[in-house]
Amino acid sequence: MFIMQYSITLPADYDMQAIRERVASKGPAFDTLDGLGLKCFLIRERGRFGAQSNQYAPVYLWPRIDAMWGFLAGPGFAGIKQSFGTPPVEAWPGLAYARSVRLTDPRAIVALTREDEVLHGDADLIERSRRETDAALDAVERTPGLLARAVGLDPTNWRLVRFDFWAISQRQLPTHSHRARSYEVLHVSAPAFAELHA
To answer: In total, how many domains does the chain have?
Structure first.
């Protein structure tokens, strides 16, 4: 599995309704995109839930790298480049992944959180993968509203990134999650959801 996100920072006075309308019109095309495990169309709005700026910042989970490559080289990403310029794209090989048995329909996801953690250079990645997998399984079983967790490894800067996928709104997120960046989900596409694994 590969995790991918790009963040497009928009002007402070940008009308975020334009992004909502863009997602409403273009989002359903991803519902049948070959090889896409999960895409959450995400926004952050300046002044809400700790956001310092307006952002459009979708997150993708890809079961196979060829599907991710096909998207980046294809018309879907070309539309982003045409509208906003070419954004830097963060991509991480999956280190851990777990989803709750309650997650039968990915459209139940309404909020996401992202948390980054710096690793020591001598970290045992095999042991860390086991720990992160165990922690993810425990979290989705025990945390109300948490449907899934995907953890990626950034071997350039030696850090982990954790994405938690929630069935509750940003306003309802538990207090401990407030140290993470939170996003509102506008649309979810998941044609190859069943293929996802760490």
So the answer is: 1
- Angle made by CA atoms 139, 107, 40, in degrees to the nearest 5: 80
pLDDT of residue 178: 63
Residue 66 DSSP label: H
Residue pLDDT, tens place only, 108-125: 999 999 999 999 878 899
- Whether the Cβ atoms of residue 17 and residue 176 lie closer than 8 Å to each other: no
Q: Which residues contact 159 (CB under 8 A, 6 or more apart)?
A: 116, 117, 118, 119
> Of 185, 181, 163, whose CA–CA distance to 24 is shortest?
185
pLDDT at residue 198, as a whole number: 65
Whichever domain contains 100, its CATH number is 3.30.70.100
In order of 41, 42, 56, 120, 187, the CA distances from 26 in angstroms are 10, 13, 14, 41, 10
| pTM, full prediction | 0.95
Looking at residue 180, what is its pLDDT?
86
Domain that holds residue 133: 2-195
d(CA 28, CA 140): 27
Q: Tell whether the model's pLDDT for residue 177 goes beyond 70.
A: no
Do residues 14 and 170 make contact, with C-beta atoms less than 8 angstroms apart?
Answer: no
